[in-house]
Amino acid sequence: MSIRKAFFWLHLIIGCIAALFIFLMSATGALLTYERQIIHYAEKSDYPVAPTSNAKTLSLDQLIPIANSFSHKKPLSIAIRNEQNAFVQVKEGRKTLAYLNPYTGEKMDEPGLATKTFMRKLRAFHRWLTLDGSFSETGRWVNGIANVIFFVLVLSGLYLWLPKRFNKRAFKQKLTFGKSYPNTNARDYQWHNVYGIYLAPVLAVVIATAFFFSFKWPGNTLKEVVSTQAKIEKLTATPLTQGTAQSLEVLFKNAINQTPDWQRAQFSLPKTTMDKLAFSLDTGTGGEPQKRLTVTVDTQTGAILQIITFDDLSTYRKARSYIRFLHTGEAYGIIGQTIAGLASLLACLLVYTGIMLSWRRWQNYRLRKAKLAVETA
Predict the structure, then answer these.
(1) pTM to 2 decimals?
(2) What are phi and psi of 126, to 5 degrees?
(3) I want to staple 18 with a disulfide (CB 3.0 to 4.6 A). Which of 2, 149, 242, 257 is the partner?
(4) In a domain, 11, yes or no
(5) Does residue 187 share a domain with residue 126?
(6) 109 CB contacts (<8 Å, ≥6 apart)?
């Protein structure tokens, strides 16, 4: 058996084995393309309305006592959006304790709850094959193995795509669609080849980054081969023993003045007054790690003590951040999301054409076998 034939049968067999799971991951991935924007739109539609035309939002100093009134064991953090009427989010770690009305400080119903619930369940099915939004170790492993197979399919597909003869005509035939096809088998074969070669680079990135969600070894390996040392170490806050801290509102305004185009901000609430306070600011969509920075402010003077940008982080942390958002394409904004989404959608077509080609090959084999049996009878 030639090398090309061995690759062909490997491609066909493992493709048929993992086809269903690859199709489900691709289809749900396509549906999740604009997840962040969909959720944001749903939340925005539930923003509270200002009680009067000249109503002012509560200051951070007024909101902090309200936030601290919620039962919590871990330190709280406050998340703010630079949008009119946007809620103030009170968090305990990753858990959200409350959404506060920015004008009254009252606890709101969770904005966009129905949409977020649907997207959460869709995301869980995409990751773990569960229907109720819960985690499944089995589902994680099944999808992980299917992803590995998908990656092998991309690599073997690239080899099989190469024409037997390297000339202009052969490459043109592999790179362009025909005006018409003699039958559906010829059409599916051409679609599989043409879409496959153009999608291969994007799919390779999407699949490879998914390994980090399914398995621990990619992250551990990355941690061993790249630096975990940040260029600038974040300043450590200590309790303020002398003097008086300025208002939180003043400190926050000093921080956001460093980047007027901020979209989101978050900061932790210490149990006691500290000499420094760090504000995490995001100037992007929320999925662009290179557009995040941390501004540390002196609580007594309000002076800016330190600004840490994405470039100042360790190589490992930068890589993990990019990996997380390269998978969804968000690292490159709406254009990146669209490219990743289209690749996921067209991957469904690759599965379909691949299965149909395999099915017809098997049917033709059965017909030949039956015909041979009749002739030799």
Answers:
(1) 0.92
(2) -60, -40
(3) 149
(4) yes
(5) yes
(6) 46, 99
